[in-house]
Write a structure and sequence with these properties.
single chain; alpha+beta; 13-stranded mixed sheet; 24 helices; 26 strands
């Protein structure tokens, strides 16, 4: 019996090649898009799930509120707080802290025993960590002992970094026990090698330094001034809400008075589950890298489901349209003795066969398109890895089951109920319910298509708006060189010599240095400042320590006052502020802030500075974050730092033009190595570095656009098949109208009128849904586009034009045919 069903199913597919191809291709494309999107969504949701204790690890989040100023949540706790929590809270099994000291960059040097030239590498992803870190998290150790991280001057390296130091055959070099020099001043012994950190980890590092190395320098267990990202491993039976309340009371008990002295009105502490870190930290400060966003993942998941649903709708539409033809088949089968259950089995088997064939094609397409997809999202997750996930396999099985029921349900349950006598006498006509179902499905298709196009336009508008938003400075053609971490005596003189040498290159304009670069993340440079007149009033601002030429190099517009100048030695205790800073302290008009005194409190350093200039507001970071005012302080010429701290991390080289870019970079590199020996030359371009903050949005836009384009293509494919079938059904009518003198445009209007009505109805439904969905999505951005009328009208016009073209192709072909052939058509 099953063999007979399969033979009939294959015969039907073979005799209706066009409709079979449309159904299989549409379903295959829908499944391919859905698989890729589900792969991306699954990967985004899988962050940190590989840790054995993932469900019991929490990150400490602090949110500081000041009078009239609520700051964003930040992922840190005061360094001495974690031991207190462990001591006072038995629910906390363990804690781990990580720390980046002084700078984001580390120069790692290794001198081989054979006396060859030392190897120097600049690494950004280096943390100091507690010995408990490797015990709490499941980062596999390949070699050595992770417990040794508790000993001073110990270092653990990733396999990738060990390969850079010792080559691919690094194991034979026996790296354990070898000595590395960090930033030219500290020696660390290699105590272990760990496997490369998975992509789906929110903490990424190439090396771990023992935190105990800094014990004497920072006194981090007894002093409270150092902010450490802190993680707690909690007993599985513990009530996290009660634990959070207990930690809040401890914070008030140990640090309440100190916080009040800092002008903190309220310090809210929360515990964030480890697995929520990647997708639920949007807008947090002090993040080590760009995080994902749960809302965008939800949008992609919906887009993937809609793409698959559109493919099923195509099948259902063609099934209902061809009901009259299949009805005669049902009548003959019933006369031949077929029972209804057998007919249902036959139609469902056909639907299952088409869905399975589509799945085979989809998996093939996934393998072929995988390199393009990984390039699109910049994440390496093979489709074979995805198919090993039980949840994904369950989802695919469920999709095939639902697809079979949805796409073959009408034929199976409705056509099988027809009376044999009526269908064989030709008295059967397509039911009103069938027509309404088909129209309803067409409307639903176009609702999705219009909504996806609106979403696609809006996403790119918002992304372009953020990238091109006026930043208040010129970031074009800026080559940023990372400042040396290994410095010598008279460092300032070496820098000035390097600066003058670089300026002799004909394509180079200005050269400057700074503590921060636009685009820096991680909350670096955020400091408290307060007026002398109102010391209880303090605000959080970005602080950047710069040299005399910084404002000119970046073309920062001064609205009032002046910038830094070597003609005024007192500028060592001066500051240039942006408008936001002046307005925060009530200076209105803002020029009234000139010559006023501020107390600057970067860390434990407190200095009184005089406001000498007021600059236009600038954006140093992504517009995802709320803009804060910026405070510019002057670094001294001798040591290139501010009061012994905050040494310059970046040199900015302004290029007049890029005609000889490779040669210019090579020239700068040679000068850098000659002036700062032992330091690797590392550079980037400012516009690329700044826009890297929008990597998550760019990936979302690309994936959403790809899914939307495929969904629209599937809808068009279905409309093509449906219009072709309807034109074939009305071939005689078209021939009669031509004989009676109807022009082609009249026939075209007649056949496309119904589709236009359905599209307009879909537009009326889709527009308000799209508006409210986009409004919700845009609420997460501090600066956002306005939802203007053309964002909604243009997609509707595009869909109408596409539909008209598709219907016109079929209609014009039939209208231009010989009427005699049309009238003889069976």
């Amino acid at each position: 019996m099953l063999r007979n069903y399969l033979l009939i199913a294959f015969r039907n597919l073979w005799h209706n090649k066009v409709y079979a191809l449309i159904n299989i291709l549409g379903l295959a494309i829908g499944l391919t898009a859905a698989l890729f999107i589900f792969q991306y969504v699954q990967f985004e949701k899988s962050y940190d799930s590989f840790h054995e204790n993932a469900n019991h690890i929490y990150r400490v989040i602090m949110q500081i509120n000041r009078p009239g100023n609520q700051e964003p949540p930040q992922q840190w706790a005061l360094s001495s707080f974690a031991p207190i929590i462990k001591k006072e809270c038995p629910e906390v099994a363990d804690y781990a802290r990580i720390y980046k000291h002084k700078t984001n960059d580390f120069t790692i040097s290794y001198s081989a025993e054979d006396g060859t030239s030392p190897q120097d590498f600049l690494e950004e992803s280096v943390f100091y960590a507690d010995a408990s870190f490797m015990r709490m998290f499941s980062f596999p150790l390949i070699l050595g002992d992770s417990a040794s991280l508790g000993e001073p001057n110990s270092i653990l390296l990733s396999e990738r970094l060990v390969q850079k130091l010792f080559g691919n055959d690094w194991n034979s070099a026996k790296p354990i026990g070898k000595i590395l020099t960090i930033n030219g001043e500290s020696n660390f012994m290699i105590r272990g090698v760990f496997a490369d950190i998975p992509e789906n980890s929110h903490i990424k590092f190439e090396a771990l330094l023992s935190l105990t190395t800094l014990a004497n320098e920072l006194q981090y267990d007894t002093e409270m001034r150092h902010p450490f990202p802190t993680y707690l491993q909690v007993d599985p039976q513990a009530d996290t809400q009660q634990l959070t309340e207990k930690i809040m009371r401890l914070s008030e008990q140990y640090y309440g008075e100190t916080m009040k002295g800092w002008g903190v009105e309220e310090n809210i502490i929360s515990l964030q589950p480890l697995r929520d870190t990647h997708l639920h930290s949007f807008g947090f400060k002090r993040e080590s890298e760009v995080r994902g966003d749960a809302t965008t993942v939800q949008f992609l998941l919906i887009a993937g489901c809609f793409t698959l649903i559109l493919a099923w709708i195509n099948y259902m539409n063609l099934s209902t349209a061809r009901a009259l033809k299949r009805a005669k088949e049902v009548g003959i089968r019933k006369v031949a003795g077929a029972r209804r259950g057998q007919l249902i089995m036959q139609f469902l088997l056909e639907a299952l066969l088409i869905n399975l064939l589509s799945l085979v094609v989809a998996l093939t397409l996934c393998q072929l398109l995988l390199p393009y997809f990984t390039g699109l999202v910049q994440k390496e997750v093979p489709i074979t890895t995805l198919l090993k996930e039980s949840s994904v396999l369950t989802g695919i099985s469920l999709a095939i089951f639902l697809g079979t029921l949805l796409s073959g349900g009408y034929s199976a349950f409705v056509l099988s109920s027809f009376k044999a006598a009526s269908t064989l006498k030709g008295k059967f006509h397509t039911s009103t319910q069938s027509i309404l179902l088909r129209k309803g499905l067409i409307v639903f298709q176009f609702i999705i298509s219009i909504g996806l196009i609106i979403g696609m336009f809006s996403i790119y508008q918002q992304l372009g708006f953020m990238k091109n938003y006026e930043k208040g400075y010129n970031q074009s053609q800026k080559l940023i060189v990372r400042a040396p971490q290994i410095t010598r005596d008279q460092y300032g003189a070496h820098y000035q010599s390097f600066k003058n040498s670089v300026k002799e290159i004909s394509e180079v304009g200005e050269v400057t240095s700074s503590f921060l670069s636009p685009g820096d993340s991680g909350g670096k440079g955020d400091q408290f400042i307060a007026t002398i007149q109102q010391p209880e009033e303090s605000h959080l601002f970005s602080m950047n320590v710069v040299d005399h030429d910084y404002l000119n190099t970046y073309e920062v517009q001064l609205l009032h006052g002046r910038g830094f100048s070597r003609e005024f030695p007192a500028d060592a205790n001066a500051t240039v502020i942006t408008e936001d800073v002046a307005l925060h302290f009530g200076f209105d008009p803002v020029e009234s802030a000139l010559q006023q005194k501020l107390i600057v409190s970067p860390g434990v350093l407190k200095r009184e500075v005089t406001i000498i200039g007021i600059a236009r507001n600038i954006n140093l970071r992504s517009l995802q974050e709320e803009r804060t005012g910026v405070l510019f302080l002057l670094q001294d010429d001798e040591n290139q730092n501010y009061a012994g701290r905050y040494q310059a991390n970046y040199f900015t080289i302004d290029l007049n033009h890029l005609s000889h870019l490779p040669e210019n970079i090579a020239q700068v590199g040679e000068l850098y190595k000659s002036h700062f020996p032992g330091n690797p030359f590392s550079y980037f371009f400012l516009d690329e570095y700044f826009n890297a903050q929008y990597r998550s949005e760019e990936q979302f836009a690309k994936v959403f656009t790809a899914a939307s384009s495929l969904a629209i293509f599937i809808a068009c494919l279905g409309l093509f098949g449906l219009s072709a079938f309807m034109v074939r059904q009305r071939t005689k009518e078209i021939g009669i109208r031509k004989v009676l003198g109807a022009p082609v445009q009249t026939i075209l209007l007649l056949l496309s009128r119904d589709y236009l009505k359905l599209i307009l109805l879909a537009g009326l439904i889709a527009l308000p849904i799209a508006y409210f969905s986009l409004h919700r999505w845009l609420e997460s951005y501090t600066v956002r586009i306005s939802l203007v009328w053309w964002l909604f009208l243009a997609p509707l016009v595009i869909v109408v034009l596409i539909a008209l073209i598709i219907v016109s192709v079929q209609t014009i072909k039939a209208a231009l045919a010989n009427p005699a052939k049309s009238l003889r058509y069976e």
